[in-house]
Structures are given as C-alpha cells and as structure tokens.
Amino acid sequence: MTALIFIVGMVAATSVIGGGLFSPGPLSAQGSDRPPLKDFTSHVDFEGRCEWCHAPWTGVTADLCEDCHTNVAEERASGRGVHGILQSTHDCRLCHVEHNGREGDPSAAAMASFPHEQTGYGLVKHQTWPDGSGFACRDCHDARAPGYSFALPRCESCHREVDAAFVDEHAAKYSADCMACHRELEPFDHHVFPLQGGHAGVRCADCHADADFAAIGATCHACHDDPEIHAGMFGTDCSACHVVEGWIPARLTHHTFPLDHGGEGEIPCLTCHTETYATYICTNCHAHDEGEIREKHIEEGIADFADCVECHAEGGHAEGGSHGEGEEDEGD
Which of 46, 53, 121, 324 has the greatest number of CB atoms lying within 10 Å of its CB? Predict the structure, then answer.
C-alpha cells in the first residue's frame, strides 16, 4: 500500500510541476546574445518540459536537439561545418553539458574541450601568443560566419604582427594560401614522400627549388642523379638496395663473388670496384706479374683471361671455368 501511495503521489506531482521533479539541476539561461530558436532564447525557457530533450529510456538524443538546432542537423547531413566534420556528433552530451545552473553555457563548455585535431588542423603550435597570452577561438574564427568557418586572411594578419618580413618573404615564395600546406597536425605531414631517416633534416628548398612544389616526383631519382659508380646498370628502383636512413650501407641483392674474400671479413666495394660497379680489378690486391700470368694461362690453353671471375668464381686459385680446368697457382 505504501508503494502504491508513493507512485500515485509521484504521478500527481509530475502532472502538476512537470519533469522538474527529477531534474539534476537548473538549466542554462545563457544564449540571449544569439538569435532565438523557435522563439526560445535559452534552455531555461522550457525548463520542466523534459520530454523536449529526453526520450523515454534513452535520454538526450540528437533528433530531439535538432528539432530546434536545425543548423546542426544540416551540417551533419551535408558533412560540412563543425558538426559535419567532428566525430560522434550524434551524442550531443559528449560536448554540450547541461543542468549546470543558470550561468552554465553548453556552447562555451564544448569550446573549452573542442577536439580541434579532428578538423585536420592541430593546435600544437597555436596555444599561446608571443606575450604568453592564450589563444581564443575568435582569434582565428568568426563566430557569426556559417559553420564557424576559418578566415584565411587571419593567418597573414596574425603572423605579420610577429614577423612581417618573414611573412612577406614566405608569401612571395610559396603563395598566400597558407592552408595549401599547413593543414595537418604539426609537424607538417609530407604525405607524398615520408621525411624519415636521412631525409628528416632536409629543408623544403633542398628539393623544391624556386618554391616549385609541382615539379618534384615521389621517386628517388626525382632528386638524386644516378651515381657515376652505378654506370647506369641498376635502373631507377633505388629501394631495391637502398633505404631512407641513408645510401650506405646498401643491400646487395645479386653478388655471386664472396664478399669475405681474403678471410678478413666483408671487404668494401671500392676494393674491387675502383671506378664503377660494372667493372672490377683484382691486381690492386693481387700484384701478379702480367707477363707471368699470361704465360701460365696460355700454357693451359686459356687465351681470354681478362675476366678473372669467369674462372675464379669463388676467388680461389684452383677453380674451373668456361675455358677449361685451371691449375692451382703457386703464388699470387
């Protein structure tokens, strides 16, 4: 009986004073400086009509909010504006908190924790002015503009106050369209070619001469000429042997001759390839007498002995080759 009396009392109270009986706190009275929505200047104008914002068993939903905030519905539907760009805008309470009293402002609360990185532009380097004062949204955005859009000329006007000479030089060299390059999170996302390893400290002008950003491709040979030592024999697929950390060391993908020739570990390329990788010499280490070598090879019926590796593929003295079986040399 007690429970029944309580339930009847609650229903009666609700029918008289509305849902305010269950309210966690007063609604905001802020918003008089903005145009009315459906003749309401703030949420307090319909305090007690909980069903206008809260759905049974569900709570606050975007559909109910958008009954008044039609501009938000348009942004979400079109994918433009603040609510068209940000994630999770279907749950208004994630950013706009209510029931914080008459002085509470759901819009101001949202701006205080605004996830600016979701717009594609981070504020890592836009926290404070040179004098130490903090940035405000209105420093870059016009609150009266549709979708709280960004005004591009403000980049130049603000940075000019800090260093006018730099702005003049930068705009003349790269154009005044700041957002063409400076859109991503800091540091600049060089998505065409990752600036990693040996390219991490490269300046823009090292590759983009005269500020021409369209003339450079994403391949290695767009910037790097084929070294003379390659002698044009490896093609332009630099990544087959080299990595962005540096040209040296390089991966040798096809090298049949043992690189530990001599038994003292891997020898440097220039030991044998003194001019180009297409040619090699052995006599810079093996000081053979040319006449003696000629005589020994002629005795074996080998007239063409200029290509040592053709017979001595492993670098030894007693190896066979296409010209016949070689006899073991007695010396170097």
Answer: 53
One-letter amino acid of 156: E
Angle at 178 between CA 172 and CA 181, to 5 degrees: 105
129 plus 80 within the same structural domain: no
CA gap 226, 228 in Å, rounded: 6
Question: Does residue 241 contact residue 277 with C-beta atoms inside 8 Å?
Answer: no
- The span from the CA of 55 to the CA of 44, in Å, is 18
Distances 175 to 72, 77, 162, 196 between C-alpha atoms, Å: 34, 34, 19, 26
| φ, ψ of residue 243 in degrees (nearest 5) | -125, 165
Q: How confident is the model at residue 72 (pLDDT cuts 50, 70, 90)?
A: very high
Counting Cα atoms < 13 Å in the Cβ hemisphere of 1 gives: 0
pLDDT tens per residue across span 266-290: 788 888 888 887 788 887 777 677 7
- What confidence tens digit (pLDDT) does each residue in 36-57 have? 888 899 999 988 888 889 998 8
Contact in structure between 181 and 167 (CB atoms under 8 Å): no
Q: Which token pair is 195?
A: 């600036």
Structural domain range at position 84: 2-114
Q: How far is CA 239 from the centre of its chain?
A: 21
Q: Which uninterrupted H or E stretch holds 110?
A: helix 106-112
Are residues 19 and 85 located together in one domain of the fold?
yes
Identify whether 213 is part of a domain. Answer: no
Whether 108 shows a pLDDT value over 90: the answer reads: no
Question: What 3-state DSSP class applies to 60?
Answer: strand
Distance, first Cα to last Cα, the chain: 115
Task: For residue 307, give both structure tokens.
Answer: 């290509």
pLDDT of residue 74: 92
Show which of 93, 114, 135 is a domain's final residue: 114
Give dist(CA 68, CA 54) in Å, integer.
14
* CA atoms within 13 Å, Cβ hemisphere of 32: 8
Closest CA to 92 of 115, 72, 77, 74: 72
